[in-house]
Amino acid sequence: MKKTMVMALVVLLCGFAGHALAQNKQIKAGFIYVGPVGDAGYTFAHDQGRQEMEKLPFTEPSTYIESVPGGAEAERVINGLVRRNHNLIFTTSFGHMDPTINVAARNKEVVFMHASGYKTAENVGTYFGRMYEPRYLSGMIAGKMTNKNIIGYVAAFPIPEVIRGINAFTLGVRSVNPDAQVRVVWTQTWFDPGVERDAADSLLDVGADVLAMHQDTPATLQAAEARGAYVIGYNSDNRRFAPNAFLTAPIWNWAPLYTYVAEAVHSGTWVSEQFWWGMDKDLVRLASLSDRIPTDVKILVNQRAEEIKAGTFHPFSGPIKNRDGQKVIDAGQTMSDPDLLSMNFFVEGVQGTLSN
Amino acid sequence: MVEILLDATVRAGTPILFATLGAILNERAGIINLGIEGLMLIGALAGFAGTFYSGSSLIGILAAFAVTFVVGSIHALITVQLRGNQIVSGLALTMFGIGVTALFGREMVGQTIGGLERLPIPGLSQLPIVGRAFFQQDLLIYTSFALVFLLWFFLYRTRTGLALRTVGENPAAADTCGISVSLYRFLAVTTGAGLVGIGGAYLSLAMTPMWIENMSAGRGWIAVALVIFSGWSSGKAMFGAYLFGGITAMQLRFQAIGTDISTHILQMLPYVFTILVLVVSTIRLQKGSSQQPQGLGLPYDREDRK
């Protein structure tokens, strides 16, 4: 029976190796994922982008490695890709940052791109998306669709990325509905369908009639569907989990960036940069709007979307007050990127704890 | 509010309860099973796929039991027949479960099924406070209530149960009485695995009716700890499972209401409790009054001398 298990492992490993068969083309890309491709969320979206990139004529079949945690394990896996002659490696989670930098320092001929981090090197660039832009738009929809003026937000961890999303969403809500409040429940996990579901239920129990979320599974969608509420998804278009409740979702579209980077490396024009692309480059977008959203709301949201793309509107433009009513951004001012990236306060209209 | 909280507690505790009961059955026969997390995942996938292809949750539940029963026999074969290391075999089973469900679950990702429905019991379901939590639940939760009683009854009120406990406490003594140690151990491991599988199926059929890789998210390990917490008793296992489920449910609801208690403190509580229980049970072990089966973790070979 042990033999059977060894056989099963060998079969599994062959599955991975199959991706790495060389065909003598120029770009051989490797991807390190933090979760499983089957998460129907964050990693799934990255993998969609990878598949699009692979359609470029000068790429060899790419390799991806799933469920790689941060730390020493990541370093080992990245090293493995380098040894197998990959010349462009994407690492997709914050925890992969130091391992990426370490491996990059020893392999100058390989280009590394790390998502969501801040450390760079000669051969390491970073990339992420301005998810707060579509979050703001989804907030406008939530603000228009709520009847009870209580909107629930299931959130993973109180880190700047999540807080920025909650604030952008709330600013969107309050731009169309100044009476609505956004209640936040922290799950302290990215990935636990059971706990996410329970958190969503707890928000519905206190009267929320629209839910939004920053989690990696569609559990919140199911909770809203089961209780006849509305829901805003995240990561990728998961409306099949909530055909009636689903309104829209701020989603990732990594294909433009992966394609851009692959082309740059291919043509030799790549230099280390920190990409933080937004809706203008279509790296982040809003999933197609549900038919349950009235036409006038759709028009309003689409107008704002165009303004964001054109750069004439920024979600974090003043005046913005924090939760205690103090002004943090003056009228006419816009938050700088460093401030956005280190955000650690709630805007007016959010109800929840920020334990520091 | 209390009604809702109790309801959420029972629902959050049920998958852990099934897994703990299964593990107790294993350990009562003297076999440690650290493969609970993997078995839960296999049960979750089998339950989901069974329901998806047949359209019936009942068939899904049976599939979860059957598949984990069969997979459990791998652990049984290694630990009972081949007298292998139980810890290593269990850990391998967990890794196997994570990998194999990821591989075979690909087609199930993104599929949807109708979840298990609540079946209110007429009359009782209208009781204040406890009605919603205990009498408006789904089939699996009612099954778990029955199982807590049945496992106790089996272990302490039947001859077979006594024989099983003897196998776990002192297999040599059981052997001299003509009890087949390997048969009892084998069936205890496979049946226990089947119960763990149903716990997994609860995740993918009732709690969140979908399949996602790794969706058990560590609940199997909590079950492993709860076996010790419970002192190998099904009643205390129920208390422990609901304690874990209840604290999660409670801290989420405190946040939703808008209280300012730190979520970190609340989330620590079950683990603080676990440490306390471990300390107490270790002291009891040293005093010789522990509930732990004396033959736990030791392979039995008739030819061996103690």
Shape of chain A: globular
CATH class annotation of the largest domain in chain A: Alpha Beta
Strand portion of chain A: 15-25%
| Assembly type | heterodimer
State the helical fraction of chain A: 25-40%
Find the biggest chain interface: A-B, 49 and 46 residues
- Quote the distance from N terminus to C terminus of chain A: 51 Å
Derived structural class of chain B? mainly alpha
String of helices and strands of chain A: HEHEHEHEEHEHEHEHEEEHEEHEEHE
**Major sheet of chain B: size, sense and barrel closure?**
none
Q: Calculate the mean pLDDT score of chain B and round it.
A: 91
Low-confidence stretches of chain A: 14-25
Find the count of extended strands of chain B (DSSP E, 2+ residues): 0
CATH class of chain B: Mainly Alpha
Q: Which word captures the global form of chain B?
A: globular
CATH architecture of the largest domain in chain A: 3-Layer(aba) Sandwich
Average pLDDT level of chain A: 90
Task: Walk me through this protein's architecture.
The complex is a heterodimer of chains A (356) and B (306). Chain A is built from eleven helices and 16 strands. Chain A has helices at residues 2-18, 42-53, 72-83, 97-106, 132-145, 160-176, 193-205, 219-227, 255-267, 295-310, 337-341, and strands spanning 29-32, 63-65, 88-91, 111-115, 124-129, 150-155, 181-186, 210-214, 230-232, 246-248, 250-252, 274-277, 284-286, 320-321, 327-329, 350-351. In chain A, strand 8, helix 8 (219-227) and strand 9 form a beta-alpha-beta unit. In chain A, the strands form four sheets. Chain A has a six-stranded parallel β-sheet, sandwiched between helices. Chain A has a six-stranded parallel β-sheet with strand order 10-9-8-6-7-16, sandwiched between helices. Chain A has a two-stranded antiparallel sheet with strand order 11-13. Helix content of chain B is 72%, strand content 0%. Chain B has twelve helices and no strands. In chain B, helix 3 runs antiparallel to helix 9 (181-207) and helix 6 (139-157) runs antiparallel to helix 11. The N and C termini of chain B lie far apart (57 Å). The chains are: A alpha/beta (356), B mainly alpha (306). At the A-B interface, helix 1, strand 7, helix 7 and helix 8 of A face helix 1, helix 3, helix 4, helix 11 and helix 12 of B.
